[in-house]
Amino acid sequence: MGSDLAQLAAIRDIRSPRSLDLAEDAADYQENLLAEFVLARSAHGVVDATVRGDLAAVEEFLAFAGVWAWEVEAIHADRFLAIGQRGKAVRTRQIKAGRIAAFYRFIECRYQGEIAELTGRTVMSPIDPINRPTHTGEFSVRVPPSPKELAAFFSSWREALVDARKWRNAARTYAMSRLAGEVGLRAAELCGLRLDDCHFDHGPLGKIHVRLGKGARGSGPRERLVPMLGDARAILVWWVTEVRGCYEDDFERPRAVLFPSERGGLITPEAFRLPLKAAAKAHLLGPVRELTPHVLRHACASRLYADGLSLVAVQALLGHRWLTTTMVYVHVASDSIEAEYEAAAIRAADRFVTR
User: Which CATH class is domain 147-338?
Assistant: First the structure.
C-alpha cells in the first residue's frame, strides 16, 4: 500500500465516538469511515492506484454535497452527476458513480446500524437505478481484414523491409504486428515483453510469458502463458537471432527488453501504433484500410475461431475474464445467422415437398 494510503489507513477505533453532535467529532468519524474503506479495498486486493481513484471520487462527491457522508441523499448524487460533472465524458461519470456506490455499499454493510444509533439516520446509497449513469456499451465494430487480405499485407510489407530507412525499427514493428495477428497480444503486452519471457522449450510450440496482461476492476496485471501458435515461433526465432542483436543495448543482461526502443529501453504502445498505421496505408489493400494493434487482435480471434478453436480456448489466449467479451471479438467469424437461415430454408423446403 502506498505511503499516503497507509497513513490514512492507520485509524483509530471507529466506534470510539459516542456522539456526532460536535463538528470536530463528525469530521473525525467521517475520516475514519474513509480510512476503513481504504483498508477494506486494499484487503480485497485492489491495487493502490484504483484505491486512490476510489477515495478521490468519494471525497470530491462529499465536498460537492456539502454534508456529512451519512446525511447524503439521492438528490446530492443527482446534482453531482448532472451539474458537478457537466462536460465530463460519459465513462468518467460512470466510473465516479461506481466508486461512490462502492463506498456506500461498504457503509451499508458494516456501519449502517452504528450510524443509525449515533445519528438516527438510515444510510442508503445515493446512487440508485434512477440516477446511475447508463452504460452505453461498445457500439463500434472493429472489422478486421480477411485472412487473405492480411496475408497479402504482411507479404508486401516484408518485401519492403529491405528498403526501410531505419531497418531494425521497421523490422521491430513488423515482428510485433505479426505476433499481434498470430496470438492476439495487446500493444501494452508486446511493449512489456522481455527476452526471457520467450520459452521456446515449453510445450510442443513454445510459450510466451505475458506478465503485463490487462487487469480487471483494479485487480492489477493478469499474467498468462500464451502458446506460440501459427507463425509466432518462427517470427520470434527470426527476431531474436537475426535482428535483436542490432540494437546497441546489452541484450544479455537480466530482463533485457524483447522489443527495445532506439535507445534500448521499453517502447511505448504509441511508438508501435504509428508505424503500423503507416505500413497499412502503404501495403494493405481491400475494404479495411487502417490497422491498429487492437484490430490485429480481433483478426487473430476471428481467424482462430473460424479454424475451429472453441470460444473458451480463444478466451484463454486473449486473456479475457468474461466469455461475453471474447464473443465480441469473433463476430466476424461467426456464421450462426447464415447457418440458421440455411437450415430454416431446408426445413421449409422439406415441409413443402411432404405436402
Answer: mainly alpha
